[in-house]
Amino acid sequence: MAKNKEARVRVILECTSCARKDFNKKSRGISRYITQKNRNNTPSRLELRKFCPYCYKHTIHGEIKK
Question: Please, what is the end-to-end C-alpha distance for the chain in angstroms?
């Protein structure tokens, strides 16, 4: 029997510029988005430009592990 692996998976995108900031500075938080991707069409990690409310600008949000 074949394994039932679904093609569409839920991924979490996190702001890369907020994650790189020093923790000594006053950080308000880290922007995260939830989206879906097709594992067969996009096997690599997903990166999208999204708005970060903590940086007040559009930044690159990269896929993170759950």
Answer: 28
CA distance 23 to 20: 9
Q: Measuring CA to CA, which residue among 56, 62, 57 is closest to residue 15?
A: 62
Please say whether the dihedral angle defined by the alpha carbons of residues 36, 42, 46 and 49, taken in this order, is positive or negative: negative
Q: Are the CB atoms for 45 and 30 separated by under 8 Å?
A: no
Q: How many CB atoms lie within 10 A of CB 27?
A: 12
Per-residue pLDDT reduced to its tens digit, 21-58: 555 455 567 889 999 999 999 999 999 999 999 889 99
